[in-house]
Amino acid sequence: MPFCLFTEEVKEIINSTISYFESTNSYSFPPSDEFKTENLLKDERKGLMFSILVAKTKENEKVILRGFSGLAEGRHKVPGYVNPTYSVNEFLELEKESDKAVKDPTIDSTERRKRSKYYAKKFEELHVFRDIDNNEFRLSDLKEGGGFCQGTGDCAGIKVLNSAMRKGYQILGFGEFYFGADKSGMTKGTLVPPCKERCELIIKRMLKLDFIYLDEDIAIINKPSGLLSAPGKGPDKLDSASERLKKIFPFAPVSPFVHRLDMDTSGLLILALNKEAHRTLSMAFERREVKKEYEALLVGKIDNPSGLIDAPMRLDVDNRPYQIIDYKDGKKALTEYEVLDIEWKNGVLCSRVRFKPLTGRTHQLRVHSAFIGHPILSDRLYGEYIENMRLALHASNIAFTHPRTKEELVIESKPPF
What we know:
This protein is an alpha+beta fold. It is built from nine helices and 17 strands. Strands 7, 8, 9, 10, 11, 14, 15, 16 and 17 form a nine-stranded mixed beta sheet that branches. A four-stranded antiparallel beta sheet has the order 2-1-5-6, with helices on both faces. It has a two-stranded antiparallel sheet with strand order 3-4. Helix 3 packs antiparallel against helix 4 (about 110-125). It is globular.
């Protein structure tokens, strides 16, 4: 699920906003006959998505940002709402130019399609976004060749997030809601996360994190391979999942991570947004109450369809950060495995394996894989690194008890290999 944070405050603001729409028959601030609420309720095609973002300014003042998707009554701007992610003047000029070129009566259908495609890409390039480090980017930075869904960059949530990033605001809560005639399971006031088709790539780039689950207590992200879980020693190793989270939510604990993934490993990582959640989850990890599964590609064909690897481990003090098998002085290390498939990857015969670590030693899955004679594909430490190829290890499943609600959560993430 893309990024959203429906705090109780955000829900209250949404409810009061709907009451305002209904009592004033207008969705502009202040009310205006140009933007009548009754028009949105006429049929499902008239309904709009709206967004609310609660934030703190640099002066520590609380503000509310509002956005709407696409156009409202044919307008790019509505009083009381943030600006779109493009210059309206540039948009209108390009619109005139494209209308003239595409509707030219002297061209054939092939040329018309060619021009339509050309101008669709030009419209995409008008959108300018800002990330958490105050860097600008465009849609072309996300995917070469364009081809985005129509309306990408126009969604209500993207507009308010972009405005918050540009102003350096701290996000306290954020979400979208629908207002209009009933359609496709949505009714007036339905809370909706940002759309996956149009918003996911933009939000990932904007926040520099891929959120899988988020509430007021915890965040679960899909950590990419190559990113540290927590900062290392030295300024060159400061960038990490936990530091990026704190740029988005400065109120999070100083060290929000409750467990870690190797830098080369991708997948599900839990981060705490308050001290109580951090304490509760840390204790759950210590008691082995959090169940994790990984998926990996191991070099070669594994004969046994499943098994248990029981091989104690310790740090190789003469060759850090390597870990080694040591039956005398090593700590207990247990890993269950199941072979899911046999396949070829980059010309290498591999076994696709599901791992269930029963202990949590550093580099445990990597060392145990090498120990049974089938190192993880492209493992630079315990196998053979393949140029321009990441480590084929992904944290694919995590099951735990929510620290506040006590709900049993099971979160899954498919491996990108």
